[in-house]
């Protein structure tokens, strides 16, 4: 593996929740941005299913002149239940009954 093919990471701060104040190296994608959500599984001390901490990517700041984003940080999102799935425009909202939307009218 050459130097240009190496996996790149970016030190990203975390705010809120149990990770508040920590800075972790987060892998960046092909665009140079870290993922939109960062999930941290925390094992249950009693042997049950792990608790998953969810953090959402937000801009760290903007430049004065052009308003460009100057890096990213993660904020704790305790109520996030999105599951990290892609949401396509043609996808049905979660909990919607199967079938076409006009089936109820006719």
Structure description:
With 106 residues, this protein is an all-beta fold. It has one domain. Strands 2-1-5-4-3 form a five-stranded mixed beta sheet, with no helix packed on it. The termini are far apart. It has strands at 9-15, 23-27, 37-42, 51-59, 72-76. The protein has no helices and five strands. It is extended, with a radius of gyration of 19 Å. The mean pLDDT is 81.
Please describe the topology of this protein.
Layout: E1 9-15, E2 23-27, E3 37-42, E4 51-59, E5 72-76
Parallel strand pairs: 1-5
Antiparallel strand pairs: 1-2, 3-4, 4-5
Task: Estimate the mean pLDDT confidence.
Answer: 81
Q: Rg, please? A: 19 Å
* Largest sheet features: 5 strands, mixed
User: How many H/I helical runs?
Assistant: 0
| Class computed from helices, strands and strand pairing | mainly beta
Uncertain runs are none
Distance between the termini: 61 Å
Order of helices and strands: EEEEE
* Approximate helicity band: under 10%
Shape: extended
Domain count: 1
Concise structural overview:
The protein has 106 residues and is an all-beta fold.
Name the descriptors.
single chain, 106 residues, mainly beta, five-stranded mixed sheet
């Amino acid at each position: 593996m050459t130097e240009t093919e190496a996996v790149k990471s970016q030190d990203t701060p975390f705010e809120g929740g149990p990770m508040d104040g920590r800075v972790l190296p987060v892998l960046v994608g092909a665009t140079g941005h870290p993922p939109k959500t960062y999930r941290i599984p925390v094992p249950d001390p009693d042997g049950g299913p792990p608790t998953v901490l969810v953090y959402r990517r937000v801009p760290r700041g903007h430049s004065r002149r052009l308003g460009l984003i100057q890096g990213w940080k993660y904020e704790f999102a305790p109520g996030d239940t999105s599951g990290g799935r892609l949401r396509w425009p043609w996808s049905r909202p979660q909990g919607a009954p199967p079938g076409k939307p006009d089936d109820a009218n006719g």
